[in-house]
Amino acid sequence: MLKKSLVATGLAGLMLVTGCQMPEEGQSLQRTANYGSHQPNGGHYPINPVNHTQNYTHYGYQRYDREHVNNNGRQDLIPVVDRSLLADAVTRMVLTNDVVSEAGTLVTDKYVLVAYDAQADNREFVADQVKRSALSIVPRYYEVYITDDPEHFDEIERFQNLTSEAPNMDGSLEQTIEEMTLLSPQGEYNERTDDNINIMQEKQRRLMDR
Question: How far is CA 148 from CA 171, 183, 185, 186, 204, in A?
Answer without folding.
Answer: 22, 8, 8, 10, 19
